[in-house]
Design brief:
The complex is a heterodimer of chains A (327) and B (212). The longest helix of chain A has 14 residues. In chain A, helix 3 packs across helix 9. Helix content of chain A is 36%, strand content 5%. Chain A has 327 residues and is mainly alpha-helical. Chain A is globular, with a radius of gyration of 19 Å. Chain B is mainly α and 212 residues long. Chain B has 2 domains: 107 residues, Cytochrome c-like domain (Cytochrome Bc1 Complex, Chain D, domain 2, Orthogonal Bundle), CATH 1.10.760.10; 90 residues, Cytochrome Bc1 Complex, Chain D, domain 2 (Orthogonal Bundle). Chain B has 9 helices and 2 strands. Chain B has a two-stranded antiparallel ribbon. In chain B, helix 2 crosses helix 3. Chain B starts with 9 loop residues before the first strand and ends in a 14-residue tail after the last helix. Classes of the chains: A mainly alpha (327), B mainly alpha (212). Chains A and B meet through helix 6, strand 3 and strand 4 of A and helix 6 and helix 8 of B.
Chain lengths: 327, 212
């Protein structure tokens, strides 16, 4: 069977139809470098689609084979968990892949790696060609990691791809499985609000991520709580800079270990607050903030290019792609 | 044998500069029968090592003993007799101690390895994060809220985890540790405690900035 990925973003009914009739050739609406912003359109209640999705369990660590291929899988896992040390030359902030893809890319509802692998290669309307999984990974480095993309077939990408392939074992190719992506929350009852978000942030998040969103380090200088905004976080082009993605991630996974404890409204409010702060510039920046908004951020889910609290977001962004020579 | 501590000597700050001598506050003499002259605690009786723990963390625990959010009869009586100023002075005194760790017989290597794995990656089938995700990869702690575990006595760590399970300790912000401890099996408690006892205490938690 050829691979015909079903976009996670299409309507519940469509998923049903596709899943049951095997309709093919549906263009993947979201994808690699997709800005983030507005990459994922508004969703119908996620539960309906979730209910019909097949589930599978990724194999455990002990199933990694021995030999050169197993070594490559293990390297991929090491890169994913400790990107800072194992893919240093491509990282321009203080994050790890596993900061946003919990449990080293295994946790359902935190865009698990195996479930993603099952959906590639995929056609993307955005760049109008069929994207490989490696191209998807390149986007992660450029945006989420605020770094630069490793060249195709670079060992870093081969290792990550091997690890994802391993995690996908036993899953149905070309099918959206349970827990894929981040949950798509229903639109909030009240419009999401920055001030309510600020209060809820102080109550539920600042203990770990700091009142200034800069995260916290251990006594040995290692980042323990990753920065949510500012120069050392993901940039404006990243998926997490899109309020709907952030709300879904936060609802399912934060506060750490207490996922699911916030209301949807709190998740939307906090996501709005978090994604209304300055962060590294969108690497696709063209001409001006206004033009960049028009091209890549013209969605209600992005605050880029809008004035929040008297600040034009994007105007004073720290530079993107800052690969640190130090540490 | 316990190694000689350094509390009487000038304390070296992270930048290598000499800071003022860590003068012993008057109340400290009453602590040393249990916590040791160098704040080293006791390996077998669940009296914790205090040396090098974050000062604000220690102060907060003393307040917890006093107001009953942390139940322990002895420490409650002791903490109730301390003024706020004395609490602060004692907390700072112990935080500034760079006492090295006494050698104890190491636990079984397989037990330590199981603890190391749990500490690093958790057990997400139970939505249990790794300890390292809050206490740091080397167990050195983060800021004033997440205490250092590295080099703490296993017997005490086990007791602390059980006190959250039984509801005797409610000092944790947002209830995070009660949530964690509630998901741990007895075997996991034993192995993770053995693992943290096996780690070096390294630099005192206050020696470095906690903000990037």
């Amino acid at each position: 069977m050829t691979r015909h990925p079903v976009a996670p973003s299409i309507a519940a009914a469509a998923v049903l139809v596709l899943a049951t009739t095997g309709l093919v050739g549906y263009a993947r609406a979201t994808g690699p470098a997709t800005p983030a912003t507005g990459a994922t359109p508004e969703q119908p209640p996620a539960q309906k689609t979730e209910a019909v999705r097949p589930s599978y369990t990724p194999p455990s660590d002990s199933d990694i084979p021995s030999g050169p291929f197993g070594d490559m899988i293990r390297l991929g896992e090491a890169i994913f968990h400790d990107t800072q040390h194992n893919a240093k030359g491509f990282v321009g902030n203080d994050l790890q892949c596993s900061n946003c893809h919990i449990d080293r890319g295994r946790q359902p509802n935190s865009a698990p790696l195996g479930a993603a692998y099952l959906l590639y290669p995929a056609y993307r309307t955005k760049n109008a060609h069929v994207n490989t999984f490696q191209e998807r990974l390149q986007g992660c480095f450029r945006y989420s990691m605020n770094g630069k993309a490793p060249p195709l077939n670079d060992k870093v990408l081969v290792a990550l791809e091997s690890y994802a392939y391993f995690l996908a074992k036993g899953g149905p190719t070309g099918v959206v499985v349970k827990g894929q992506g981040y949950p798509k929350l229903k639109a909030p009852d009240q419009p999401a609000d920055y001030d309510r978000g600020a209060k809820a942030y102080a109550q539920h998040c600042s203990l770990c991520h700091g009142a200034d969103g800069a995260g916290q380090k251990s006594a040995d200088g290692q980042t323990v709580f990753p920065p949510l905004w500012g120069a050392r976080s993901f940039n404006w082009g990243a998926g997490m800079a899109s309020i709907n993605n952030a709300a879904g991630f936060i609802k399912a996974n934060m506060p750490l270990g207490l996922g699911g404890s916030l209301t949807d409204q709190e998740a939307w409010d906090i996501a709005t607050y978090m994604d209304s702060q300055e962060r590294p510039q969108d690497p696709r920046f063209v001409d001006s903030v206004a033009e960049t908004r028009k091209r890549f951020h013209d969605e209600p889910t992005s605050k880029y290019g809008l004035v929040v609290n008297g600040v034009l977001l994007g105007e004073k962004s720290p530079p993107s792609g800052t690969i640190s020579a130090a540490d | 044998m316990l190694l000689l501590g350094m509390s009487a000597l000038p304390v070296l700050a992270a930048d290598g500069k000499n800071t003022t001598t860590n003068a012993m506050p008057p109340g400290a003499a009453s602590c040393s029968p249990c916590h040791g002259k160098q704040g080293e605690g006791q390996p077998t009786t669940a009296v914790p090592r205090l040396a090098g723990l974050n000062a604000q963390y220690l102060e907060r625990q003393l307040a917890g003993f006093k107001d009953g959010t942390r139940k322990n009869r002895i420490m409650m009586m002791i903490a109730s007799d301390l003024s706020d100023g004395e609490k602060k002075a004692l907390a700072t005194y112990y935080a500034n101690m760079a006492t090295t760790k006494a050698e104890t017989a190491p636990a079984d290597a397989a037990v330590i390895a199981a603890g190391a794995k749990l500490a690093a990656t958790g057990d997400w089938s139970k939505d249990l994060p790794g300890c390292a995700q809050c206490h740091g990869a080397a167990g050195l702690g983060v800021g004033a809220d997440f205490p250092r575990l590295a080099g703490q006595w296993a017997v005490y760590i086990e007791k602390a985890l059980r006190s959250w399970k039984s509801g005797d300790r409610k000092t944790d912000p947002m209830g995070v540790m009660a949530n964690i401890a509630g998901k741990l099996t007895d075997d996991q408690i034993k192995s993770v405690a053995a693992y943290y006892e096996s780690l070096p205490v390294a630099a005192p938690a206050h020696a470095s900035e906690t903000k990037p």
